[in-house]
Amino acid sequence: MANEPKHPTDPGQQPESVPGQDSEYLTTAQGAPVSDTDHSLKAGERGPTLLQDHHLREKIMHFDHERIPERVVHARGAGAHGLFTSYGNAEELTRADFLKPGRTTRVFVRFSTVVGSRGSMDTARDTRGFATKFYTEEGIFDLVGNNIPVFFIQDGIKFPDLVHAAKPHPDTEIPQAQSAHDTFWDFVSLHTPAQAHVMWQMSDRAIPRSLRMMEGFGVHTFRMVNEAGKASLVKFHWKPRLGVHSLAWEESQLAAGADPDFHRRDLAEAIDAGAYPEWELGVQIFPDDGSGVFEGIDLLDPTKFVPEELAPVQPLGKMVLDRNPENYFAQTEQVAFHPGHLVPGIDISDDPLLQARLFSYLDTQLTRLGGPNFAQIPINSPDSPVNDMFRDGFHQHRVPKGIAPYKPNSLDGGCPYMAQVVSGQQPPLDFPQPVASGKKMRSEPASFSDHYSQARLFYISLSAVERAHVQQAYSFELGKCTDTAIRQRQVECLAKIDTQLAAGVAQALGLPAPAAVQLDDPVASPALSQIGKAWPVDGRKVGVVFNSGNHQHVPAIAQALAERGMSPLLVSASGGEVAPDLPIDRTYLTARSIEFDALVLIGPLPPAPDAAVALDAKAGALGAGGVPIDPRVALLVAEAYRHNKAIITLDGLSDGLLQAVGLEDDAPGIALVELSAVAESAEQLLSTHRAWERFPVAE
């Protein structure tokens, strides 16, 4: 009939609407069918990823440009400037100039959360980015890592799937900066390579006490090459001088409301106070024998880590962050990292996730920073000379000289010359690695199919209290899922990791416990536990709580704490000064327990004002003469106690405060001391981070 609409594919006929998401099978953006979106195209099963993989490039390219202008992931960040000093012990390992004896290199570090938007809170349960830009004499080297040594996926082609699942639901745009929702757990319970990373994320590692107390990992296996051309495989580690410490779960939730800038504030204040954060850079070293396997662990699988007991970390240098950014946008926001920013002596491996990152990180800058000249932004500009022969493009600030931006040329005298390669040595950047033979394919090695053993290794290496926290985290996160099938499927995954863990989570969710599975018991790695060691207390914040009528001891206490490297914060009912140039930092109204690593209480504390009593008539904290203590102080002390924090009182001046809030003077982590012993006691109690024995957990 003449009035019937033509088929959309008829020549010259445009469809009434753009077709989208309506095919029964997966296609490219151009409508071509896709048979595999889990594996990138490689030169042989264990070979490098091929540039001709049009599906990988299209999928990653679109993902890279989904957010304008903030980062798609790692949008929420904090940064600092510093210096890296080489120990000079890496010459047998690499020819990299910045690791040679006597070298000090300028650095900029950006810490970040992964899932949340730029305006989200710092203390969400999330993986943290730990990216370091080295401004070496041979160009920029970017070490772009995380605070967890394994990742969710094994192949970069799955990265858009992972992030789409972890981000807020597309219909409601909630929840923000959280993994406690259906789409995340739907993905990870089906894509079981994610189980190892999720185990770390459900541990205390995902809620660090401070960015200064966070370990960093390069995640992937890299290659180092020395002057003689000998290659070794390595994994990078950042070890914080202050140790690895975490928030209690309740603290992280309180901080999200009371101080969503908790981590970036802590970092900036520590640097301003001269408590400069320090890390050692080290590497685990493995033979580059062509197998890509060490002690049965596949080094090309980014969901695997190598226990330090099998391959100790060799320290190569120390990094100190000593200067805050002058402008957040110009530096922390505009800094651009890329795993392909390498220097001679450091090269990549065939890890399929790393291979995809080499395309993705470069591609995403085109949208986020407005074009190909992002290296000219000052924070990204190398300290070494540049002559790249590139021309024009958005935001071109250089004024190139010469008329021949091509090679070979005679009009500009043949310049620039090629970097000289000394006879018998390797080229400056590219290691002549043998390429896997065989046909191009979308596949993975059989060793990539083990998705549970390392999650079990991590879990059994934790202390009892840390394992309890893991169980609570799974119970909370899955409890936020509305789909029972997703909960059950993830619990069944846990049964393949640890029977008791699965049973405990199932009980909390009201689900039947899965059938017991016979599991191997790997040798535990004590290095994975955060508990049981003693650490320096530099920059730890100690709340000194007193009232305006009883502050004669405060200056001496503050001075003694500062002399031992701690940061005293004075807390009283109202503001002002207790002595010239010694201001009160917080009032009972503005202080909250999350800000302090320990409390020093100087009694007698003031009674509650009538209004405060009316607000909290059931506070139950009675001071001298049965007068109610200000409930804000009672809450401060009770929370610190509940979170296993050190509480120190002055002998003769405690005024029954601890008993008034239901605490005993002899509980673990509580000290009743003379004035002269306050700072020593605080240092001793804080060295282990918390009084974990206060609430013992059965093994």
TrEMBL record:
Residues 36-45 have a biased composition (Basic and acidic residues). It comes from the Bacteria. It catalyses: 2 H2O2 = O2 + 2 H2O. The active site is at H74, N146. SMART domains: Catalase (SM01060). It holds the Pfam family Catalase-rel. Heme binds at R71, R110, F159, R357, Y361, R368. Its cofactor is heme. Signal peptide: none annotated. Gene3D superfamilies: 1.20.1370.20, 3.40.50.880, Catalase core domain. GO terms for molecular function: catalase activity; heme binding; metal ion binding. One of its GO terms (biological process) is hydrogen peroxide catabolic process. There is a cross-link at H338-Y361 (3'-histidyl-3-tyrosine (His-Tyr)). InterPro entries: Catalase (IPR018028), Catalase_AS (IPR024708), Catalase_clade2 (IPR024712), Catalase_clade2_helical (IPR043156), Catalase_core (IPR011614), Catalase_haem_BS (IPR002226), Catalase_immune_responsive (IPR010582), Catalase_large_C (IPR041399). Residues 27-415 form the Catalase core domain. It is an enzyme of class 1 (oxidoreductase). Its EC number is 1.11.1.6. GO terms for cellular component: cytosol. Residues 1-47 are annotated as: Disordered. Decomposes hydrogen peroxide into water and oxygen; serves to protect cells from the toxic effects of hydrogen peroxide. Belongs to the catalase family. HPII subfamily. This is Catalase. It comes from Glutamicibacter mishrai.
